[in-house]
Amino acid sequence: MADITGTPILRHLRAEPTSHVRHLRNGRLAHEGTGLAFWFRPNISAISEIPVDERELPLVFHARTADFQDVVVQATVTYRATDPGRAAARIDFSIDPTDGRWRSAPLEQLGGLLTELAQQYAVGVLARTTLRDALVGGLPIVRDEIRTGLRSDERLVEIGLEVAGVRVVALRPEAELERALQMPVREQLQQDADKATYERRALAVERERAIGENELTNQIELAKREEQLVVQRGQNQRREAEEQAATLRIRSESQADEAEILARGTSQATRLIGEAEGQAEAARVEVYRELKEATLMGLALKELAQNLPRIESLVLTPDVITSALARMATENGRDGDG
């Protein structure tokens, strides 16, 4: 919007760089251009301000497809004034010389015109397209149709407008129909989710089963190893017992052999000692046989005295002495006679 200041008789206008100002004084062109600043008299001036920057117009309208289904088209049209003089001549862009505001609503008029034209081209292409095709790939088709139609429209060319671009945001059916169309997809997605859940559960069960089988296999293997350990321990104990028995048998046999050898030696020694003692006794008997009775008596008394306990004192009576002397005398007499 232009900035206007000054007195009621003489005013000053300063336009924005994106605004094209057209000043007529008494019906004649006095100033024209973008970003102008000039003085003017309000009572003899007619001023128009045409924006030359790009502007976006959002569009929302209904259309019907080839299968008689209602759809809502959401689009955005970008346009600009390429010939401001022609636009000012066809559409009222005049401003109030006191405050710089538009006397009418030129942008709304342009918006209505663009909306009707865009709707016309969109309805035409959607009328030849089924709902499913429109929802699947209708966005670029509708966009190209609207852009081509607006750029080649003669009325827009006469106004001096150029369509810079068209964007189709969405094509939507009615809410109930949209939910009905979404239902198979939702069901399929739910089935896929359920399938994924079942597969995950099955995988978990399979993993648990594998873990259980692995644990059972480990337990079986452990039991086998324990059995082998028990068998090996039994074999070791049996081998140890056999070795101990063999050791004891060898030791017993060795002791028996040693005892037998000792017994044989002792028997042999005893036999030899007996034989020697027998021979000595025989020799002694043979010697005693040749001795006289009195000598034998004396030896016997001597032997008896050696084997008797110790005698501290001996008392001899006269009768004993007399008897002994008489016996000795008798024996001596016999010896002399002989």
Structural summary, described in words:
By secondary structure, this protein is an alpha+beta fold. It contains seven helices and nine strands, in the order ββββββββααααβααα. A three-stranded antiparallel sheet has the order 1-2-5, with no helix packed on it. Helix 2 (106-126) packs across helix 3. The longest helix is centred in the C-terminal third of the chain and has 116 residues, at 175-290. It is rod-shaped and about 225 Å long.
Primary descriptors:
7 helices, Tetrahydropterin Synthase, Chain A, three-stranded antiparallel beta sheet, 9 strands, 338 residues, rod-shaped, alpha+beta
- Return Rg in Å: 76 Å
Continuous helix count: 7
CATH superfamily of one domain: Band 7 domain
Task: Categorize the overall geometry.
Answer: rod-shaped
Structural class category: alpha+beta
Report the CATH C-level class of one domain: Alpha Beta
Helix content: 55-70%
Q: Based on DSSP secondary structure assignment, what is the total number of beta strands?
A: 9
Characterize the main sheet. Answer: 3 strands, antiparallel
Low-confidence stretches: none
Query: In percent terms, what proportion of residues is strand?
Result: 15-25%
The SSE order reads EEEEEEEEHHHHEHHH
Q: Mean pLDDT, as a whole number?
A: 84
**End-to-end C-alpha gap:** 201 Å
The assigned CATH architecture of one domain is 2-Layer Sandwich
The CATH topology name of one domain reads Tetrahydropterin Synthase, Chain A
Strand arrangement within the widest β-sheet reads: 1-2-5
